[in-house]
Amino acid sequence: MSIELKLSRPSRVYRPGESVEGKIITTLTTPLSYHKILVTVTGAVNLQVRGGVAGVIESLYSAVKPLCIIKKSIEVASSAGKLAPGRTEIPFSFSLSSQENGNHGAFYETFHGGNISIQYLITADIMRGYLHKSLSATLEFIVESDKASLAGPPVSPESVRFYITQDTQKHQLLPELLTGRFRITGKILTECSLMDPIRGELVVEASAVPIRSIDVQLLRIESILAGERIIADTSVIQTTQIADGDVCKSLTLPIYVILPRLLVCPTVRAGPFLIEFQISIVISFQSTLSRLYPKSDLRTPRPWSAMVTLPLRVFRT
């Protein structure tokens, strides 16, 4: 015997105020008696502080509790009955309404992060009584922000100019980089819609040391209020290489980065947690040291690298 959930939309993407429709599908070899069939909808912000993020944190685990967004139950069959052998489809529906969720909070967009996870689940339970184990199935659906609920009109995407030189770096560089000249300029979007790529351009105006690689990193900053402390963790979402090997001087290199859905959401600045993003441009130079550490973390300042990091505001349009 088996049980599964199937929604009417193959994408499983919904917005607040919309109706979610689906079916409970059972495949049985023999008749199955049940006491009740229940569909439970839950949405929560799960907050987790990983070990090593901020000193001694064991005492903070109890203070970081999930934030309930929505929790409701729908009785598809409230009285006892029997399911016939073969395939049976049981329809259900519910509304993603803020008036019906007990005023738990706003419908934040689905997000899968390292320390913060915003998840919406549908669970179907076919309850068979005390002597038999219930049949259950769980399915995640995706929630996107409703444009009508946005606090204000989003800022139009605009480019910010950046410069990478010896003077903009705070860490120790290779002697060749200190004595020789290097200058990289460009522009990139720091206000970006989830539906659009991050666009920009970069020009290597001068470099006394040959370039090994140019990478663009998308970073997320997850901050959690744990007790009286705010614990922040920065991690890499993805790395996009825009140049491999030494590049021609004064050549304009395009920057084009697609935002990965579920790993990126609109910037959130709520009370108990924050989800923010950054864009980092890393220039790696050819040197003996860089060959000794080919898999070094690009976020860590190294003598053979130079970088610039800019804040990135993500919004829904």
TrEMBL record:
Matches recorded under InterPro entries: Arrestin-like_C, Ig_E-set, Vps26-related
Pfam families: Vps26 (PF03643)
Taxonomic superkingdom: Eukaryota
Gene Ontology BP terms: intracellular protein transport
Family to which this protein belongs: Belongs to the VPS26 family.
The name this protein goes by in its record: Vacuolar protein sorting-associated protein 26C isoform X2
Source organism per UniProt: Phoenix dactylifera (Date palm)
Classification of source organism: Eukaryota, Viridiplantae, Streptophyta, Embryophyta, Tracheophyta
Recorded name of the encoding gene: LOC103701861
